[in-house]
Amino acid sequence: MNDVNRLERERDYHNQRFADDTEREQRVGRFYSAISYGFDLYRQRVSEAARGHRVLEYGCGTGSLAFDLAGEASRVVGIDISDVAIQHAQHSAGQRGLTNVDFLVENAEAMGLPGQQFDVVAGSGIVHHLDIPKAMQEVRRVLAPGGVAIFAEPLDHNPFVKWYRQRTPELRTPDEHPLTVADLRAVARGFTSSRITFFGLVAPALGLVWRQAQSGNPITRFVWWLDRWVCRIPVVKNFAWYCLLEVRP
Question: What is the residue range of 221's domain?
């Protein structure tokens, strides 16, 4: 029953968010822009892995990544618990005339998809909403041999980020849980290899200065260089806001 209630809360929250995300974007969009180089890296690695392959976008929202991959992947399937998001994605796919992209309302912890159907599973900001053992069991089930799963996820160790989260509960669901080091181990458990790239320890400060980080700005480039460097330091890197996690079965 608890799982049912949790999934209903997640669905209701995301239905409301995908119907109108203006307030959230106005309040925190500048900080996501400040660490956008990390999300660019996520998209780059997914794009490289997707060429000519079958891709599952895990928690697709309204489908922006799926649309980006449509010209490279042989097939793209996007799933989300939000029927509002899937309706938007299906409508956009129809308008674009895409024939190799499908969107489905699915529970990421118990998908109705056949096993070993995808070479790539990719998701941004999805795993921390889920029961990790159940979700990773499903990811392993649908991945074909030699496949890869790539996730961009928020972390839970930075005290400043935790302070902000505690004071803005309306911006997130009551059940989401940014990942701890123990959670990262839980994600990797059952896979044969894993790679973690941390980002967003110094770079979020750009959000205090600019509403939109400019990649061509020398200050932005320096801060992103510094962020990459700091996020390689053992122990210190665990205080980053986000990480890129890649696992292989």
Answer: 2-248
pLDDT band at 21 (very low <50, low <70, confident <90, very high): low
Q: Which DSSP string do the residues of 45-58 spell out, in sequence order?
A: HHHHHHTTSEEEEE
| pLDDT tens-digit readout, 104-157 | 999 999 999 999 999 999 999 999 999 999 999 999 999 999 999 999 999 999
Number of domains the chain contains = 1
CATH number of the structural domain spanning residue 24: 3.40.50.150
Strands 118-124 and 54-58 come out as: parallel
Strands 193-199 and 242-248: antiparallel
By C-alpha distance, which of 163, 165, 112 is closest to 142?
112
Q: How far apart are CA 34 and CA 37, in angstroms?
A: 8
Q: Is the pTM here over 0.70, yes or no? A: yes
